[in-house]
Amino acid sequence: MAESLPVLGFTCGDLNGIGPELLIRTLSNKTFLELCTPVVFCSGKVMAYYKKNLSGLEFIYVPVKNNKIQPGKINLEHCWEEDVKLEPGVLNATGAMYALKSLEKARDFLKAGLLDAVVTAPVAKSNMAGVLPGFVGQTEYFGQQFGGKPLMMMAWGSLRVVPLTGHIPVAKVSEQITQERILDHLERISQALRRDFLVPKPRIAVLALNPHAGDQGLLGSEEETVIRPAIQAAEKNIQALLAGPFSPDAFWAQGTWRHFDAVLAMYHDQGLIPFKMLAGREGVNFTAGLPVVRVSPDHGPAFDVAGKSKADEQSLRAAAFLALDIIKNRKTFDEATKNPLIPSSPKSKDQPADYKSEAQENPE
Prior knowledge:
Elements: E1 7-11, H1 19-27, E2 37-42, H2 44-51, E3 61-63, E4 74-78, H3 93-111, E5 117-119, H4 125-131, H5 138-146, E6 151-156, E7 159-163, H6 179-196, E8 203-207, H7 222-234, E9 241-246, H8 248-253, E10 262-265, H9 268-279, E11 284-288, E12 294-297, H10 314-337, H11 358-361
Parallel strand pairs: 1-2, 1-5, 2-4, 3-4, 5-12, 7-10, 8-9, 8-10
Antiparallel strand pairs: 6-7, 6-11, 11-12
Helix pairs in contact: 3-4, 6-7
């Protein structure tokens, strides 16, 4: 039974953040091993350091040797052997350097087909950029490593939120709102909803950029010149029900979001502030559009509570559960939509050139 369970990889995140504690809290629940085989990418010494402050939790692992993962057990891939000076709550290069080692090893296991999905613990973007120039986020990192078109999708229950523009200054948002970008995002959201969440006919809401949806041009023109035309063009080509642009304040306050499977926000905080208020501690950051499954909690490394036994693992646990759902959903979708194999047999000499077999005539 255990051998058939999905294999989930878990990176440790910034060593001075709450990542290692989140892993211990999540994986110490023995029922978790009934759902998957976890592989932790870290160091046994680091995990032991954080475990000593978590009384009452049982975290017993077996080391991975020669890439052999043992089903039904917590596996730990030692990503480094040297001693590391841990300073919980301190933002420094050490925390980022070893977070990168964990991330790279998980990447290698994914590329080798040893994992079904990866759950990444939180890192500090600015800190990671100091050890990996050009780093802007784990979403982008996985896109660079695995190809595809990564899409940050925040998920909680039936609510999924995607920002059209990502980690950029607010002053640059307007110039990046184009019809092409909106069309592209709507297509990718629709694809993710169908394959990753098994939503057959996705309903997607599009938010306006300006207050009151521009108020007919009084407060801005993007709604009429860019957003609405993009929605109208998308309706002709995308397998989804589209609506908008909605005035964001009323959309969230009146609960209109409950009628949709996903929401396309124009910028980061327009979507993520209401999302995090609604999801509480159970929100998940899912990277849609990749050939692999990658999820993470929807929060950062929380240096203010690191090492104080106060970290809440609900978001990381929810991320792991979502990863398991997506693994299953992708298999179901791919099986249902694969091309049927039509049996063929050699044609007899007296068959006409335009002969069609019974299987071709009646593909069902």
